[in-house]
Amino acid sequence: MPRTRFTPDTGLTVRMTAVMLLLGGLFVALVVLAVYFAGGALGFLIGVAGIGFAFFQWWRSDTVAMRSMNAYEVSPEEAPELHGIIDRLCVLADMPKPRVAIADTDLPNAFATGRSPDRSVVCVTTGILRTINAEELEGVLAHELSHVAHRDVLVMTVAASAGITAGMVTRGAQYGAIGGFGRSRNNNNDNGGAAALVLMLVVSLVVYAVSFLFLRLLSRYRELCADRAGAYLTQKPSALASALTKISGRMDAVPEQDLRAAKPMNAFFIAPAVRGISMGTLTATHPPLEQRLDQLAKIAASLGQNL
């Protein structure tokens, strides 16, 4: 983690390192299997495509996220209060100021993205600006800035490439079977090709499942970490707790169409764009609201405050 005044979290660092190593190993295993069973040319193509996609995810993560939300960068003259809060928090945290953006949507949310603290963006929606007050907004922005400082947005973005590559291997195996490349090197008959295809499909599905679950585990932990770091930085855990409660409560009023459109960004939002379901499952991108509020209440007690 870069040296800032955000509370460091060894647990987050260990988890991010473990996830990257695990998924990196799975990626290498996928490519080796693709080369062996699908043939050198196709396997090499899958490997290059996977690495290329990971690089693209890393290099253009801020642009991709902004476009997906139809967000636009705003100047201090256009959003003086928003810039003012971020200016104060960046000075307090001793970190570079990110670019500031707004997404015009009723969805009350915020997210941070970017390949490094110097190439980061913090974005809020018009919906959240109408939902919470200035003090609560400060808590939300401190949460998002902690993601930038911890670089966990970068890890989440790049690590997701292993699951995407697994999907590519699945499609490559199907194509290889049709084109005659899916045959085993030790057996050139149809049974050998079918067995190779089945093995590649099974392995790629397992890799996808493992990638999916480990990224969800990391996502839930990093949200708790950002809550902690943001609350300690501002010394106002109650403001963040109030903001999370308002944001989650407001989701039921958001049109279903907007929730569906924002679903791909759920792992990066401060609160998931969902309603009417429990978030305490293995597939959830965020910990349950009750768990987050309980943690903030303990932080408030440690600071001699009431939540």
Explain how this protein is built.
By secondary structure, the protein is of the alpha+beta class. It folds into 2 domains: 10-62 and 153-215, no CATH class; 72-151 and 218-302, Metalloproteases ("zincins"), catalytic domain (Zincin-like, 2-Layer Sandwich), CATH 3.30.2010.10. It contains 11 helices and 4 strands; from the N terminus they run αααβαβββααααααα. It has helices at residues 10-38, 40-59, 61-68, 80-93, 126-131, 134-150, 152-179, 190-234, 237-250, 256-262, 289-302; strands spanning 71-73, 99-103, 110-114, 120-125. Strands 1-2-4-3 form a 4-stranded mixed β-sheet, with helices on both faces. It starts with 9 loop residues before the first helix and ends in a 5-residue tail after the last helix. The model is unreliable at 177-185 (pLDDT under 50).
In short:
By secondary structure, the protein is α+β, with helices and mostly antiparallel strands. It contains eleven helices and four strands, in the order H-H-H-E-H-E-E-E-H-H-H-H-H-H-H.
